[in-house]
Amino acid sequence: MSNLPSIGIQTVLYRQGLPDVDRLVRSLGNAVRLTQRIGEIGSVSLIIGDCSPTATLTLEHVDDLRRRLIASGIHDIKYDYFGQNLGSAAGHNRLLDVNDSRYVLFINPDAFASPFLLSELLLPHHDSRVGIVEARQVPLEHPKSFDPHSGETSWASTAGCLVRREVIDAIGGFDATSFFLYCDDVDFSWRARLAGFRVLLQPGARLFHDKRLTSDGMMVIGDAEHYFAAEAALMLAWKYSRGDLVDQWLDALSRSDLPLQVEAAANFVRRRDDGSLPPQLDPQGEVAEFHGINFARHRFEYGA
Amino acid sequence: MPERYRFQYQERSVFEKAIGLLSRLRNPDGKVVIDLGCGYGAIAELVRDAGLTYLGFDVDAAAVNDLRARGFEATIADLSDGGRAATMIEHQLGSRSLTAIVMIDVLEHLTNGAEILSSMQRLALARGGVPLILAVPNITHVDMAGKLLLGRWDVTPTGLVDDTHVAFFSARRLDWVTQSAGWVQIAEDDFELPESDQHFPGDVAVLQSGAPLRELLYEVRDQAGAGVIVNEFVRAYAPLAVPLSTEVADPNSPFLSVLVRTQAARQATLEDTLLSLAAQTVCDFEVIVLAHDVPRQSLSDLQYLIDAFPEELSAQTRLVPVDGGGRSRPLNVGIDLARGDYVAILDDDDVVFAHWVETFREMARRRPGRVIRTVPAEHDVRPATWSASRQGYEVVSAPRCRWASEFDLLEHLFENQSPPCSWAVPRSAFRDLGIRFDEALPVLEDWDVLLRAALWCGVADVKEVTSIWRRWKLGDSSTSVHTEFEWSHARSAVVAKLDAAPLLLPERSLTALHRLFASERQAGGEIARLRSAVDSLKAERDALAIRCHEASRELEEFRRSTSWKATAPLRMLGRWARRAAGHGH
User: Fold this and answer.
1) What average pLDDT does this structure show over B343-354?
2) Do residues A275 and B373 lie in contact, with contact meaning Cβ atoms separated by under 8 Å?
3) C-alpha–C-alpha distance, residues B136 and B53, integer Å
4) Local structure of residue B570 (DSSP, 8 states)
5) Structural domain containing residue B127
6) B213 with B287, same domain?
7) What pLDDT is stored for residue B478 in this prediction?
8) At CA B227, angle to CA B223 and CA B231, rounded to 5?
9) Are residues B15 and B163 in the same domain?
10) Which of A164, A172, A231, B374 is the most exposed place for a label (fewest CB within 10 A)?
11) B462, part of any domain
12) ipTM of the complex
């Protein structure tokens, strides 16, 4: 058996088209081929979960992908159509159940891996204290700050990051009970840091993330983001023992002009009242960072 | 042959130029000059005087007889029957050595010109590779362009539109015909006439030098290709054993050619650029990476980087080293290599969104032939050192859209509002209109090309941000590398070039100009009103100053007066009384 690290790549689809899947898979196959050629990784599998209302891939599509990917060095491909919208956290957890690789690559379905993505993400993992290494997103970088030299950062986005198996063993998967779509990765990162792992951003590891800007330079966001981002922020503040922020944000959200934000605040209050919120962590604020409504210091703000 | 074709040899004529090429390029081992379609043989005496043997062929008996009467060897030959004519020529030439073949004003009279050229090519090859000297009228003379604009086709007894012409030639057509027949051009000495025989009637603006319509037409025609005032193409060709392939439309040409200019100094951003191209939603493009003044070792690194990308990108990407010149040189090299319908430009620190190519393609389908302009965004970056001491960079601002979201030509004429990554130009603007990046410009070469293409092709706007231009807050960039003088000088040069010819403004420009003039007048009126108000205030201030000065003087005089001094004790008592009253409250 090879001593080279195995990698299980997992992605969760939601309403992506076949061309998007094809684009992602093409880039992954290329990155795997290159990284295997230089002898840095062993076996690689790809697991695709699907939260879409109807299945994105047919059996024929999966067979076709399998044929193409075997030539690239991805020895196995699994496709799991969930039949419901589990959200990213629960979706990834379901895939983690069948992913036993030494490293797990979480990647967004609207992404495109650079040829050197895997080798770059693996580099910092030579230090066993490193738990999560995040890729730098192109063309729109995440604004959170990081140390350009060490890569140290508050949390890692699961749009593209490589996680050591030990992290998952230590903290389990994502907190899907508390987080549906957003901040599941912030929570995951902070729990990893509480467990003693370092979280880094590796700027040389590039990931094209298909984001767009409006003609006045604002990030294009969907309606759902207003709800889920508000819900996730409240949940994160609660979970990381920042009752003061919960009160402030509830007050602001309940008076918002956006009905979805008002609804998010109301749902949070309902859960608090019925005692279904998660247990609180990090009472001393050792890892959690709250800067305004951000969870890391930001170098800039989109749309500012 | 009608007497109208009895041309005499003249200096500064087509004949002189043909004889010049003949003298320079003939096979020195041969003696015989074949003058095919010789007419009355205007060059016969010149050939004989050069110690060569003249051999004329023409269908017109009178012309042939005239030549014979002058002591020259001439034969009646009907060139409309190519095979027979070739046999006759071979027969007449016999075993004598050939030095050149001349065809002056012949090809345009033949419906089987290609056949004749082919048979002459075979003869020339068989007889030591002798050259062909060819002269044909240029139907694309600027006078013809003007006449066609007026809807005129004036047939004349001789000249560009001779009533016996059955074939018409542009420079490109002539190239195609000769190449197809196995000839390659080796020299040219075209005969120019600023005013051709078609320069009539004399009172139409389109023919009159200095008239805006004529100047614009001249500018377009001149930039589009050689021959604006060429009356006749006079060219020399050599026969090729293996004919050159003639240009044919490439059925597999992509929609877009992306020219990526790099000096291999920014590997970190170049990788981002290529990644963003690899991630495009459509693959209908090619990439030409123009490595400008890049050392050989860095070329290998660049090729390695390109090859690392998926085949969909790497197989469509060419690495082209370019040495010398300024910022324009690599772009001109790229244009010459481009195969796409459109051409777009990226620098090695630009990055594009996934729908960059798709957006250009969609708009090109809706409004073909236009410059396509999207909304530019920019953000600030600065150099940074990444782990393992790698040179990287850091984004330090959010994207901004500080430039106009709609293309405004008048505004662009004043100042560029569109970095190159935000637009694509139809390749025909380069190929057919002859637009090039000006290699004399150290900077602003993109502005120059954008304006020229926009003025002539028009612009189709897409209100989508599809790319990000990076502004370096530290480190080298065109802003920091080039001096203020270079920027200012380049700007003046661009303006001067556009000023040299009439501008073709798009629809609604007059309204925009009206608005500009109206606001200028309004601003002028407001300035005048404010100046007047300032003047009044100044006058008031001056008057007050004078009053103040006079009052001071009067006060001083009063204080010095005896009565003022005498009443001093009383004023002191008054002050005390007022103070005491104040304390009482």
Assistant:
1) 97
2) no
3) 24
4) H
5) 7-239
6) no
7) 65
8) 150
9) yes
10) A172
11) yes
12) 0.96
Same structural domain, B42 and B99: yes
Query: Read out DSSP for A78-131?
Result: EEEE-SS--HHHHHHHHHHTT---SEEEEE-TTEEE-TTHHHHHHGGGGSTTEE
| Total Cβ atoms within 10 A of residue A129 | 10
**How many CB pairs lie under 8 A apart between chains A and B?**
112
Supply the pLDDT for residue B242.
Answer: 81
**Rounded Cα distance, B251 and B49, in Å:** 53
Q: Tell me the shortest Cα–Cα distance from B305 to chain A, in angstroms.
A: 9
- The reply to whether B219 falls in a domain is yes
Assess whether B374 and B505 both reside in one domain: yes
Give percent above pLDDT 90 in chain B: 83
Q: For B513-570, how does the pLDDT look when each residue is reduced to its tens digit (9 = 90+)?
A: 999 999 999 999 999 999 999 999 999 999 999 999 999 998 888 877 766 666 666 6
Residue A75: count other Cβ atoms within 10 Å of its Cβ.
Answer: 15
* Mean pLDDT estimate for chain A: 94
Query: What average pLDDT does this structure show over B441-447?
Result: 95
User: Per residue in A85-112, pLDDT tens?
Assistant: 999 999 999 999 999 999 999 999 999 9
Long-range (24+ apart) CB contacts under 8 A made by A259-262 are A260/A223, A260/A224, A260/A226, A260/A227, A260/A230, A261/A226, A261/A227, A261/A230
Candidates A19, A34, A303; nearest CB to B308: A34
How many whole angstroms separate alpha carbon B426 and alpha carbon B173? 23
Residue B585 pLDDT class (50, 70, 90 cuts): very low
**Chain A residue closest to B470 (CA)?**
A139
Question: What pLDDT score does A108 carry?
Answer: 97
The conformation of residue B385, written as its DSSP 8-state character, comes to: E
Q: Which domains does chain A have, with CATH numbers?
A: 7-209 (3.90.550.60), 215-304 (no CATH)
Query: Any idea which residue has 């002459």 for tokens?
Result: B120
- Flag if B310 and A114 touch (Cβ within 8 Å): no
* 3 state DSSP class of A264: helix
Query: Side chain identity at B80, as an amino acid letter?
Result: S
Inter-chain residue contact A27 with B312, CB threshold 8 Å: no
Question: What pLDDT was estimated at residue B263?
Answer: 95
* pLDDT grade for B202, boundaries at 50, 70 and 90: confident
B405 touches chain A (CB under 8 A): yes
CB atoms B405 and A215 under 8 Å: yes
CB-side neighbour CA atoms (13 Å) of B431: 15
**Could you tell me what percent of chain B has a pLDDT over 70?**
93
Give, in order, the Cα–Cα distances in Å from B290 to each of B259, B293, B347, B377, B410. Answer: 7, 9, 10, 24, 32
Q: Nearest Cα to B98, choosing from B29, B184, B182?
A: B29
Q: How far apart are CA B516 and CA B410, in angstroms?
A: 10
